Amino acid sequence: MAGSQRYMRYIVFALFALIVFYFISSSSVPSASWPAYGESTTPSTPNAAVTAVTAATPHSSTTPNEKTLPPATISGDRMNATFVTLARNSDIWEIAKSIRHVEDRFNRKFNYDWVFLNDDDFDDEFKKITTALVSGKTKYGKIPKEHWSFPEWIDQDKAAKVREEMKEKKIIYGDSVSYRHMCRYESGFFFRHPLMLDYEWYWRVEPSVELYCDINYDTFKFMAEKKKKYSFTLSLYEYVDTIPTLWDATKNFTKHYPQHIAKNNAMKFLSDDGGETYNHCHFWSNFEIGNLNWLRSQAYIDFFTSLDKAGGFFYERWGDAPVHSIAAGLMLNKDEIHFFNDIAYYHVPFTHCPTGEQYRIDHKCSCNPKDNFDWNGYSCTSRFYEMNGMEKPAGYEKEQ
């Protein structure tokens, strides 16, 4: 009996202790009121502690982004322009990277079209992925065989011998047939493709390129308003062994077509002796924004045709970059050529990172200015500045 009484006292004592503990805890610590998912984060009956926190912190628990994000599109008229890419089905993942860079940094704000060209048919995977990535319309074209083959006047045996010699000399792409077809096509035919005839302006994009800064204005409209016809971001000296007779072919052209040479041309960018010899400077054509009507002009067609007949695309390894550059340098006024310092660009192995710290900060650039190629001794961009009497960007000395 005594044991039962003690047992009951323990139960009563324990119960009393629990009541006291609950009273103390509930009177000093407010209970949390967690909202269900999707409900308001403000309790319907806030207690004193919650009210105090709310009064001290006027904003919600998540810090708002006070910066206004750019709209998906920028208002205003669009130019008759397109991106253009020469690619094969096997390039899909490399071109996907390029598209993401272009869309994220520029085209999601403008929604320009994209033309893809191939010497074969594009497969369904290529079309599906690129269409999903591009904000504008996508168009897919096959290159006519006559634009991607040896012209009838080329001596096949001679061309094969040249490729073998270049292979022995370890000249990059020296033994490649497809690379030569590509250079010839980019030099003289891409702007004549039926899909490209719908447009007046183009921006050339290749697989595996990167853009490092936001571009918040319409580059095509800029070109038109400033009366520019050709532009670049990188320039350098061409591999001499790939173009030993290109300048001779050029001088033959200027001799027969003097009417096509602009009076205020950019010869000083191309030659150090008034045109007697070529200094091998050229604009790197894997990035170009240009005017298609200029490329379709009689002057440019005559220039390309004269080079094509000379055979240097196959008997040597003439690239489209020096061809475009020489054409622009001779047939355009020098003020019709534009250097896009503000378009941060990479194509292996060179980087153009805009000179000017404040610009890089304002435009969310992710490139390292130490990687900038512009003021490197192998770059020709200084020549472009000097030819035009332009002052080099502040801070360029630190990037030399």
Layout of secondary structure:
Elements (H helix, E strand, L loop, with lengths): L1 H27 L19 H9 L24 E6 L5 H14 L7 E6 L5 H10 L4 E5 L13 H13 L8 H12 L12 E4 L5 E2 L7 H7 L4 E3 L2 E3 L8 H11 L10 H4 L10 E3 L4 E4 H4 L2 H13 L1 H4 L4 H12 L5 E3 L5 E3 L2 E3 L4 H6 L18 H8 L12
Parallel strand pairs: 1-2, 1-4, 2-3, 6-10
Antiparallel strand pairs: 4-9, 5-11, 7-8, 11-12
E-strand count: 12
Q: Could you give the order of strands across the largest sheet?
A: 3-2-1-4-9
Rounded mean pLDDT score: 87
The outline comes out as globular
Structural class: alpha/beta
Helix content: 25-40%
**Which stretches are low in confidence, meaning pLDDT under 50 for 5 or more residues running?**
1-8, 10-61
Q: Measured on Cα atoms, how large is the radius of gyration?
A: 32 Å
Strand content: 5-15%
Question: Which features would summarize this protein structure in a list?
Answer:
Glyco_trans_15; 3-stranded antiparallel beta sheet; 400 residues; alpha/beta; disordered N terminus
Description:
The active site is at residue 288. One of its GO terms (molecular function) is alpha-1,2-mannosyltransferase activity. Belongs to the glycosyltransferase 15 family. This is Glycolipid 2-alpha-mannosyltransferase. InterPro entries: Glyco_trans_15, Nucleotide-diphossugar_trans. The strands form 4 sheets. A 5-stranded mixed β-sheet has the order 3-2-1-4-9. It has helices at residues 2-28, 48-56, 92-105, 124-133, 156-168, 177-188, 219-225, 246-256, 267-270, 292-295, 298-310, 312-315, 320-331, 357-362, 381-388, and strands at residues 81-86, 113-118, 138-142, 201-204, 210-211, 230-232, 235-237, 281-283, 288-291, 337-339, 345-347, 350-352. Residues 1-8 and 10-61 have low confidence and may be disordered. It has 15 helices and 12 strands. It is α/β, with parallel strands linked by helices. Helices cover 38% and strands 11% of the residues. It is globular, with a radius of gyration of 32 Å. Strand 2 (113-118), helix 4 and strand 3 (138-142) form a beta-alpha-beta unit.
